[in-house]
Amino acid sequence: MTRVVSLFLPSWSTDRLRRKGGDAAPPLEAPLILIGREGSRRVVVSADAAAQAAGLRPGMPVAKAQVLVRDLLIQDADPVADFEALERLALWVLQRFAPIVAVDGDDGIVIDTTGADHLHGGEEAMLDALIGRLAMSGISARAAVADSWGAAHAFARYVAQPAFVAAPGHCPATISPLPLEALRLPAAMTHDLRVLGFEWIGDLLLQPRAPLTLRFGPELGRRLDQAIGAAAEPIDPVRPADLIEVRRSFAEPIGAAETIARYIGKLVVALCERLEEMDLGARRLDLHLRRVDNQRQAIRVGMAVPVRDAKRLTRLLCDRIETIDPGFGIEVLTLVASIAEPLVRKQTVSALIEEAIPDVSDLIDTLANRVGERAVYRAAPLSSDVPERAVAQIPAMAPDTGATWPGHWPRPARLLPRPEPIETVALLPDHPPVTFTWRGIRRRVRRADGPERVFGEWWKRDAELVAVRDYFRLEDEAGERYWVYRAGDGEDAATGSHRWFMHGVFG
């Protein structure tokens, strides 16, 4: 089933201007508007959040805006620069989220995420990551995912706060409560519909189509069908200028999985020859399919390191053939190296030098393309005495920094995501527990070792200035070993609550 994401940027123009200004940009709390001309009048073209909170809206005369808001910041709008920056943002989304991305008007981006959401942890996680990355860059955004472009566009602008995920296969009743403006109709048509008494999309869905088409033309019916998913709306994706791609057109459309796999292999060989000429390897491949009904599909595979092995790339792409819906046939196949990097060459190992290091990048690529890139990682040590801060998740094939794990005190193989409180019987201040109760089970301690005192990182938080933890290794009567700690030194209440916590399990 097709799934489409609509990304809405409500204050794109002003956000772009503030990003461009850097440290010299006006503060967020200062109302900012961008102005343009409508004939001989100066009107508000865009207003930031502070200006909108003060009652300013696009289309308002500038003189009225100045009367309503004292100390209003005014700058000239630059729609050409806004659109160029929006295209660059679309290319950024193309590289990181999905292979089919296009600009949606002057304040949005549309993304075909069919079959790509699992690579980002699901649709909700994907939207959160997209909105979060934009927020870190100073760009406010709302996003929604639905079965059609029209529905996603409507949800992003009138429902998302800041994200909304419509259930797959949602019915027309889902968009019925939305206003007429959500249909992307011309402003004059929307005004005429309101004059006739129509306020919501549901009001139009209940009416016969023939009188509406006779009065307003085919545009109204087309937008309604696109919103409910009854009419296709192809997405014309943006394309980088220096894209490395190969294409194959078919006089007779293809649809069988075996045929698709055979031509994928041919395209991969041709693409690898192009990459070899440029001394590059592919980090990400997008296979675009155009059907005879002008519908577009795409599958994406990523690699942990630059790859130019045709057999390996073919296998990764063919593993995704089952996600392709050929419909009545595919007439064009396009293979794109959306991310290409210089190929890292390694010295060939012979019997005269050390033993070869196994290459696990192929296995990592297979797993990452099945379960998502964020689900495949490795742990790396960080310089911190606090156990939960001493480990970080890094890409599986990230280069080794040379950092090593501390060896002066044993650490458990399994560290709990959060320390869990336990009930203990222990003699303060330095003795380990005699018994402890964890997750409803009481355990008697047979052997114990400790304490290992860990001090708080006072340079990060004032609350850790005098905070300490005393860690103990415990072994119960069943031979199971645990890692527990007491919050505090056992004497001074300022050092901690003196409560006990389970933090890890050995073995």
How would the blueprint of this fold be written?
Layout: E1 4-8, H1 12-21, E2 32-38, E3 41-47, H2 49-53, H3 62-68, E4 73-76, H4 79-96, E5 100-103, E6 108-112, H5 123-136, E7 142-146, H6 149-158, E8 163-165, H7 187-195, H8 201-205, H9 209-216, H10 218-228, E9 244-254, H11 257-277, E10 280-291, E11 296-307, H12 310-318, E12 330-342, H13 361-371, E13 377-381, E14 391-395, E15 414-426, E16 433-438, E17 441-455, E18 468-476, E19 481-487, E20 500-505
Parallel strand pairs: 2-4, 7-8
Antiparallel strand pairs: 1-6, 1-7, 2-3, 5-6, 9-12, 10-11, 10-12, 13-14, 15-16, 15-20, 16-17, 17-18, 18-19, 19-20
Helix pairs in contact: 6-10, 9-10, 11-12
Catalytic activity: DNA(n) + a 2'-deoxyribonucleoside 5'-triphosphate = DNA(n+1) + diphosphate
Domain UmuC: 1-121
Family: Belongs to the DNA polymerase type-Y family.
